[in-house]
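re: ur question from the group chat, yeah i did fold both. here u go
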Amino acid sequence: MKILNFSLMPYRPLDIPASKDYRSVWVNLPNRFFDPEKGAAEYEAYIDLLAGSEELGFDGVCVNEHHQTAYGLMPAPNLIASALIQRTKRIKIAILGRALPLVNNPMTIAEEFSMLDCMSRGRIIAGFVRGIGAEYHSSLINPTESHSRFHEAHDLIIRAWTETGPFDWRGEHYELKYANPWPRPYQQPHPPVWVPSQGSLETIEWAADPKRKYPFLVTFSARDTVIKNLLAYRQQARDFGYEAEPGQLGWAAPVYVAETDEQAIDEARAGMEALFNDYLNLTPEMLLPPGYSSMASMKKLMEAKRAIGRSGFGKGTGRQSIERLIDQGTAIVGSPKTVLEKIRAVQSETGLGNFVAMLQFGTLGNEPAWRNQRLFASEVLPALKAL
């Protein structure tokens, strides 16, 4: 297995009680809640945490993109990736992912990723996503165009990476007379593309297509949902006439390790419950704007969200306890033995080959995050790599 370390880079100094006067920490929470001095310290601490992953033996680190939210401070994840390139020499840097429909010119993403790939000498993993529903409120992009914008942007970027330019592009959403990106990517024919998702039927079929065979990464989902979606990808691959490799299957989850199960629960409680109750408090219209998902995928997403409780369903469903999150398998918390067993159990059922551990989450502070990262690396990571 390949093991990567992921941080959302949440804004931990957030005045959570005061933020409750607003519908969510997404989209319309006034930016006066952000203190630039504290924000600068947050960036420094998070980059230190991720850069430290190399000497601890991780295969890679992950960053991602979100806008106008305290949930994650990376509206431009390519900038964080650039900083990590300078702080590391070996590990992969996965940008999971860039929200393709939100850009007006996909060539900028093709060029930025090519730059990063050259700067890192081929260590970039490109994660492509549509962006969650809230991003469409922030950007005023029509959510009914989400799928078509994503697919056209993806096709344009892949062609720009693999075909000598300039060439002419006349699409439904994008029009270019000279598609001719400088520089070209270091990895040939292009950086690997991963697809993070919560299990959209369309996404599984698209990612598993023999023309792509993109690694599919299930995020923020209960254990049973993770297994169901990864097996659905395997079956889709079989329907296409091939057997999916372990490297095409991945799972991302928040993890906390301590000497005992009881200690781990106690130390992780505040940070984990803040993540799922305070930072993920998306109201239904923010999570699923009209036209964003097909009816089948919407039902599936709502089932997955219901499994982790309040997230995505407003403020009336009550707070989630860490005990329930652990019981559902949405969070992995415990002693090294317990954590290893929980990950192994899913790996044995699905054959997944990539595990992304979120070792800092919610309001978890720097010291416990470092302890968690070091203990995971020393007691869990070696056994997982051997699977």
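okk and heres the other one u asked abt
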Amino acid sequence: MVATQVKHDVKDLSLAPLGKQRIDWAGREMPVLRQIQERFAQEKPLAGIRLVACCHVTTETAHLAIALKHAGADAVLIASNPLSTQDDVAASLVVDYGISVFAQKGEDNETYHRHVNIALDHRPNIIIDDGSDVVATLIQERQQQIPDLIGTTEETTTGIVRLKAMLRDGVLTFPAMNVNDADTKHFFDNRYGTGQSTLDGIIRATNILLAGKTVVVAGYGWCGKGTALRARGMGANVIVTEVDPVRAIEAAMDGFRVMPMEAAAPYGDLFITVTGNKHIIRGEHFERMKDGAIVCNSGHFDIEIDLKTLKSMASEVKQVRNFTEEYRLNSGKSIVVLGEGRLINLAAAEGHPSAVMDMSFANQALACEYLVKNKGQLEPGLYSIPTEVDQEIARLKLQAMGIAIDTLTDEQVEYMNSWTSGT
């Protein structure tokens, strides 16, 4: 056990033993990040770097934080969502690993923003962001610190949308690594991770049977695809709503019914939003829903469901289970909201399985190393993870899974690089 003099704001340090046990368990399925950590411990690529990580404080995130510390970083960890922190993990990171953590499950918005500013007081050289709140606060309120910044990394679709908007507005004056769009991130984390963990959170909060239910999935990006596939796999009848015509065609050809939310509202027993946009489910939709319909969100922010309007339509709001609130409408019917409209997979469950976060956090760790190695050489803007990094992460994952694949012969390499060969 290390000294607990490191600065922190966690719920209860006595939870550390349980957190340590759970961190160790998660590590069993994170072999890629473990190999990166071992190399980092020898090479110290982040020595002298002040780093802020704004992430969901889970057992998987713990392994990223530990790897960054082994790399030599002076790191501070804060929560990226008020309901996603696992308090025992936060305690263990402070007590057992000497990492400064400012995160408590259930913290209010004032505390959340205070923690963002505490993190920025660290004067970071690297920011790992999850939703771009820290970067947005830096640009809006602390522009004098921008010269300290080497760059940032972002692993959420919502955060990438915000960074692209910053770039369009000319305020993104430093490099940002688009971790979210790495193949070894969104193909697996967004699809398999979100798909499984979203249904896990719903079942923990409600204990409902999904088989035979009509589930409406709003959005058919990678997160929506995973959620819809997993719901169908558990026997649900799935309807998809979309605004993108290409994704709508894809959903239809994947065998799902596709219709507008207004048309889907009367059919749904369970509604799941995964769009990254706001007010996907609104007052006119609540009015058309059946009595007892359940709504929840697995997008990053708690704005996909218009809870303000729902509250104005309700005569009574009461908690009926943990993370489950029943809104009794003036019309007499009820609408059930899970996890206060926040990420249901982290509010009511434990987030993505460690096996899939292994690749996502490998990307984060290597993106930080890339920024430091290329300090001063990258123009302001949004950068993709280098293909060779993506491929190496996939290779390490396959190796850990005991899977071998073919390699191209010299003749095949020559053919693929030639234009003269044909029929």
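fwiw on the second one: Residues 245 and 358 are 33 Å apart (CA to CA). The longest strand covers residues 314-321. idk if thats what u expected
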